[in-house]
Amino acid sequence: MSVRLSAEEIEQVKSHLAEMKLEHSDLDQIIERLARDTTVEELHVKRLKKRKLYLKDQIADLENELIPDILA
User: Fold this and answer.
1) What Cα–Cα distance (Å) separates residue 37 from each residue in 21, 42, 51, 64, 65?
2) What's this model's pTM, rounded to 2 decimal places?
């Protein structure tokens, strides 16, 4: 059971969602570029990938908040 969000809260969630999607996209580009650079530490790339995965999960959670419950 989810809590109904006000119009203002929905806009805040959408704004936060947009920021997170932008960061996710930026990380994707950075990881791709660093993966081609042999001088970059693998640990650094792994940390970026972990952050990207975390963002993906958070994005999914926020998108689920915006979907209204449908009674079956």
Assistant:
1) 25, 10, 19, 37, 39
2) 0.80
Compute and round to an integer the Cα radius of gyration of the chain.
16
Q: Quick one: CA dihedral 26, 27, 30, 35, positive or negative?
A: negative
Weakly modelled stretches of the chain, pLDDT under 50: 1
Which pLDDT does position 1 carry in this prediction? 46
The per-residue pLDDT for range 42-51, each reduced to its tens digit, is 999 999 999 9
Query: Residues 40, 30: contact at Cβ < 8 Å?
Result: no
**Angle CA 57–1–23, to nearest 5:** 20
Q: 36 by DSSP, 3-state: which?
A: coil
